[in-house]
Amino acid sequence: MSVTKVVEIPVTLEIPIGPQHPALHEPLMLKVYADGEEVVKVDINTGYNHRGIEKLCERNSFYRNIFICGRVCGICNTVHANCYVRAVEYLMDIDPPKRAKYLRVLAMELERIHSHLIINAIMAEILGFDTLFMYIMRDREKIMKAKEILTGNRVLADYMMIGGVRRDVNGVKKDRLLNIINTIEGDIKRYIKIFETDDTITKRLMGVGVIKPSQITKYGLLGPIARGSNIKIDVRMGDKYDAYGEIPFNVIIRKEMDSWARMMVRWEETLESVNMCRYVLEHLPSDGPAVPDERRLPRRFPAGESFARVEAPRGELTYYINSVGKQVPYRVKIRTPSFNNIINSGFSYIGYSIADVPVILTSYDPCIACMERAIVINVKRGTRKSVSLKQLAKGEV
User: What is the DSSP secondary structure assignment for residue 296, as one 8-state letter?
Assistant: First the structure.
């Protein structure tokens, strides 16, 4: 009697998510391959938002580049500018006054608060909890107002400058900022309770997108994603740049390792940032002018290399600068946390349902604007040809 061997061949369906999709607020393509409802493979395609910022930095002066780097990302523009400015300061051996360092921390922590608020609001929107989305965005406006009081602008702050900051604070501004900080603290605690108890949130997030600590280190994942998987990594703690070595704070970690843990890390970090902002305002040093005289800043830039990193809201952000002694840098290299987190995240969707894909992606807090910086170079037969952004926009390449 012969035995017939039956081989089951799964029927795999390719589902494109993006580059324009309601779950994605920026252009990104996820090619999801599913067997029924189960995800078996995900290909991640980027490159829809090239702006050539690194190349622009090589064509503009060290001082103009502060404004260019501050526009890599609209949400975390202050930390980009800070990282670039500190890299230049390391190159020029400049140490800002302590008051300026405290104000830099205040600006970056306000930015961390509003960044974490917006991604938690987006998560509520993805889950269909539109009312919660509206409430969180309403309260985020308080932090945007605080940022405006401190820096003069709600979004693009242009607050950092070599040797200090562009605006100081007086007693009136300190009182207004403290009032906002004290008000937002109660709002954040209320949202934490909602994320801990509401069935709409817990059933969709808990146990979804689990990332083990070994996978965090294997794929080089950063920021709240790593801390949500019990990896205690934070550049503020490691480098103690600016005034982080003097301002007390806790590095938040969670052991659940899922999408819910990553969102809760952000909520609890928001409370830590509130406490840090309050500490800065109550212990603001008086030594040294926080705003340097731009006319007296050095105009000669030494040859050499410099490297700086900062803990952006999404994780470790790094800037590398190479100078040959001219008014413009020879090379500015930026590595953003979303580049690591998104490019290497394909494994985390496998085994979950198609409906879980937007939830897992949102838990990464993707920032595609940070990732897309390169300009296309076409190498053919030993020649090098630069392609203009106009040609890219017209689809001529």
Answer: G
Q: Which two tokens stand for residue 380?
A: 């053919």
Distance CA 82, CA 73 (A): 13
Q: Where along the chain do the CATH 1.10.645.10 domains lie?
A: 53-344+367-377
117 neighbors 140 (Cβ within 8 angstroms) = yes
CA distance linking residue 155 with residue 161, whole number of Å: 17
Tens digits of per-residue pLDDT, 379-389? Answer: 455 555 665 55
Tokens representing 23 are 């779950």
Q: Answer positive or negative: Cα dihedral of 175, 176, 182, 183.
A: positive
Complete DSSP assignment for 192-260: HHHHHH-HHHHHHHTTSS---HHHHHHHT--THHHHTTT----HHHHH-TTTTTTS-------SS-SHH
* 228 burial via Cβ count (<10 Å: 0-12, 13-18, 19+): buried
Both tokens of 377, joined, read: 């170079």
Identify the sign of the CA torsion 220, 370, 14, 126: positive
> What six digits make up the tokens of 337?
């946390």
CATH architecture of 53-344+367-377: Orthogonal Bundle (1.10)
Q: d(Cα 269, Cα 115) in Å, to the nearest integer?
A: 11
- C-alpha 138/C-alpha 128 separation (Å) is 17
CB 182 within 8 A of CB 233: no
**pLDDT greater than 70 at residue 378:** no
221-270: pLDDT as tens digits: 999 999 999 999 999 999 999 999 999 999 999 999 999 999 999 999 99
Secondary structure class of 355 (helix, strand, coil): helix
* DSSP classification of residue 279: H
Backbone φ/ψ region at 158: left (φ over 0), alpha (ψ -120 to 50), beta: left
